[in-house]
Amino acid sequence: MKAQLIKEFGDVSVFQLAEIAKPNVCRGHVLIKVGATSVNPIDTKVRSGAVPAAAPSLPAVIHGDVAGVVAEVGEGVTQFKVGDEVFGCAGGFKGTGGALAEYMLADARLLAHKPQNISMEEAAAIPLVAITAWEALFEKGKLREGQDVLIHGATGGVGHIAIQLAKWAGAQVYTTVSTENKLKLAKQLGADAVINYKEQSVQAYVDQYTAGKGFSLVFDTVGGENLDRSFEAAALNGSVVAIAARSSHDLSPLHSKGLSLHVVFMLLKILNEEQRKDHGRILAEIAKVVEEGELRPLVDEQIFTFEDAANAHQYLESGKAIGKIVLKNEW
Fold it and tell me: Where are the alpha helices (DSSP H) in the chain?
């Protein structure tokens, strides 16, 4: 089969078009005829060698997100049959093959049936970011109907999904952006209030929207200095959920406010096999929300093919994309 292969870690030039053996289906797995994949920041980090603990052995096919059609079913798999359309974040990391190929071998526990009302390209944009947002809002943040939530990074991969899921759950959603264009997009996604953080200080928007009390739940998809701003924006006894916490911070605001800090790292449930079933369960719930018309991925208007993998990675790293970058398989 055709694949985009990396034989060393580095910049986008490490991608090589290659002919490699098609994986053999094995127990508990399915073989997917890949229709599309998407690029996530973790994929560029794997390619560059920045996350050795999560990286597959070289030579490797990378990319986790996949949407496609089941071509073969392994022993013990009962939830899928040949011809089923599926989606998931199912590999491209240590011990697994990736989606940048004609076929992908995937653990069936990491998959769900693809929503019928969206395309393969849209489905491929959903898994990693939606699972991350779901775990952050509902499993760590315990978001409930009527609660106020501040979501940082409205038009990012995770942020734009989180806004829609929070609205679906009946929350009052506030979000931050950096430009007028992103402000308009955030409103279209359903945010109740959109804050340009370059024009308003944390204290100013906390005063404006919460009468100085702060937000009971803050979801930080940005990290770095923004995590400190998240502590500042949180209410007494509130919760902060982060997905980028590889940095040093003064934790005294947590103590002075009685805050809870939660971290979501969705790859852990791929790397630890006994927890993989959680991802399939979450994706099945997300598929229902999509089919109800309550969730739609924001896909950048520039669509790439698998042969353009290097350009897709370069585009993500440029910071110019709005929403998810998708690649479709034309092999």
Answer: 41-48, 120-124, 127-134, 157-168, 180-189, 202-210, 225-233, 252-257, 268-271, 277-291, 309-318
Spatial CA neighbour of 94 closest among 138, 54, 127: 54
What DSSP character marks residue 138? I
On whether the CB atoms of residues 34 and 111 are closer than 8 A, the answer is no
Query: Do 114 and 121 touch, CB atoms closer than 8 A?
Result: no
The mean of the pLDDT values for the chain is 96
| Average pLDDT value for residue range 279-304 | 96
How much of the chain, in percent, has pLDDT values that exceed 90? 95
Q: Are 164 and 295 in contact (CB under 8 A)?
A: yes
**Closest of 126, 23, 19 to residue 74, by C-alpha:** 23
Quick check: pTM over 0.85?
yes
Beta bridge partners of 18: 3
Q: What is the rounded CA–CA span in Å between residue 174 and residue 191? A: 6
Residue 33: name the closest of 42, 23, 19 by CA.
Answer: 23
CA-atom Rg of the chain in angstroms: 20
Q: How far apart are CA 121 and CA 47, in angstroms?
A: 22
Residue 272 pLDDT > 90: no
Question: What integer is the mean pLDDT of 59-73?
Answer: 98
Task: Say if residue 23 is preceded by a cis peptide, omega within 30 of 0.
Answer: no
Residue 322 has pLDDT above 90, yes or no: no
Q: What are the DSSP E strand ranges found in the chain?
A: 2-6, 15-19, 29-39, 65-73, 85-89, 103-107, 111-113, 148-152, 172-177, 193-196, 215-220, 234-242, 260-263, 304-305, 325-328
152 SS3 class: strand
